[in-house]
Amino acid sequence: MPAGAAPSVEGAPPFDTARLEAYLRDRGLVSGPITLRRIGEGHSNLTYLVSDGERRVVVRRPPPPPIPPGGHDVVREARVQRALWDEPVPVPRILAVEESTAVIGAPFYVMAHVAGIVATTRTPPALDTPAGRRAVGEALVDTLAALHRVDHAAAGLGDFGRPSGDVTRHLRRFARIVDPDGHGLPGELGALLDWLVDDPPAPAAPTIVHGDFRLGNVMLAADPPARLVAVLDWELATIGDPLRDVGYLLATYAVPGEPPHALTEMSAATLADGYPSHAELAARYAAATGTEVSNVDWYTAMALWKLAVLFEYQRRRVADGIGDAYYFRPGLVEGFLAAARPLTTGANL
Question: How far, in Å, CA of 210 to CA of 220, rounded?
Fold first, then answer.
């Protein structure tokens, strides 16, 4: 591409790519004209692979407006990753953070490109044996345990969140996303909430919580031994009960014999022979952290309920003419609720 040519964009992003190129040049992150490609399978913040033909970096920014208050805070994402850079949790190196909207119309950050594989429906070929698959599953939960062992105050994240022991209040506030007037959630969505608040467990000691820790949000090394080279998508990170992450991991980790839902469809690789079961993952986590996991089914049901609420919120936004049309697919909310039923023995759902 000749000097001065417009940046090449695969699927035009919602911002001025020439301004982004100038910003990256000024910071020595690229030296020539750039190309951009949207990457990632998520439906939230936008992630782009940027290349000048020799070097590659990754840019992450919020989606186009409207953005819910407090949502899509990419500066906060960058902060937690910077704090973890010297910890035994693999994260991409943060190269630049822009808090203003002057460059591309929204805050954004730039991180180093990490070579690896995001496994969704298939295990990386070099690890695609029963032993290799087991090692991938164990590496996944071992990394989560390592995250939860980080001293968040010593890492500079002492003010990163305000953990609350009032789980009932938290869940009822969360329900306001789709029930702003407090009239009560309908049908199975309301019944599952009632089950959750009836007898919640006491929270574990607070740690850094990723908030979206699942197979599709990590990168694996392409070659043995099985290991994670990056944990991605820190948008929901906070300080709180670590079992929220464990329950969410189990809720989104596909196992044979359980009905699929939207997020287990994104991690169907773990259906193959060799991957650890839910019980094996929970037991390995407990052994690595010393955390009691006897109530993990409650946390898994909570994760599924929260996913149902979030997907219902997004479905309503699409019905109102805004948001990602993906969320209007039939059966998404019902899939999460169906997955929760086996966990709520005796509940009137």
Answer: 17
